[in-house]
Amino acid sequence: MENKQSSNNLGSGFFLGLIVGVIVTLLFTTKKGRKILHNLTEKSMDKVSTIENRFHEVKENVKEDIQSLKADLEEIEEDIRDTIVDELPDKKIVHHKPHVHEEEDAKKSPVKKFFSKKN
User: Fold this and answer.
1) What pTM was estimated for this model as a whole?
2) Is 22 inside a domain boundary?
C-alpha cells in the first residue's frame, strides 16, 4: 500500500517537473516564448510599481491622520483643563509628579570605599 502511494507521488512529481521544465525551456529558447516572458516581466513590474506607489500613499495618509489625531487630542486636553479650572475656581490645582530619584536617594546607604585614604 505504501509502495503504491510513494510510486504515485514519485510519478506525479516527475510529470510536474517535466511540465515545468518544458514551459521554462519554451519561454527561454523560442522567440515567441521570450516575447511572452518579456510581457509577463513587464506586467509584473508594473503591478509591483503600482503596489509600491499605493503603499507610499497609504503611509502618507496614516502620517497625516496621526498628526490630525494628535492635534485633536491636544485640543480635547485643553478643553478638559479649562473645564476643570472653571468648575473649581477656589481650589488650586497643583500638577506635582513625585521625583523617583528623591525617594531612591533617601533609601540608599552611604557607599563604602575599600581603597580610600583615611585622614
Assistant:
1) 0.44
2) yes
